[in-house]
Amino acid sequence: MKTLRDVKIGETCTVRRIHGEGALRRRIMDMGITKGSEIYVRKVAPLGDPVEITVRGYELSIRKNDAELIETE
Question: DSSP label at 1?
Fold first, then answer.
């Protein structure tokens, strides 16, 4: 299983599934990260947290813990 955390800088991936439950899963989906959406990884902070991505035409920074919940292909 490859997660968003494993995607390298400059790569684009597609969301397969979002793990997690309840409010956490809803928060990720409210940010526009849904099944089938394409994500481009722009930057990763020096210590790996946060990860800056482009999704649906806007920039977004997410924690690496949240990135590990997003399964990609």
Answer: -
What is the residue extent of each domain of the chain? 2-72
DSSP secondary structure of 21-61 = -HHHHHHHHHTT--TT-EEEEEEE-TTS-SEEEEETTEEEE
Phi-psi region of 26 (alpha: psi -120 to 50; beta: other; left: phi over 0): alpha
Per residue in 49-68, pLDDT tens? 899 999 999 999 999 999 99
Residue 2 amino acid letter: K
| Architecture of the domain delimited by 2-72 | Roll (2.30)
Q: Which two tokens stand for residue 32?
A: 């526009």
Distance CA 38, CA 73 (A): 10
pTM for this entry: 0.87
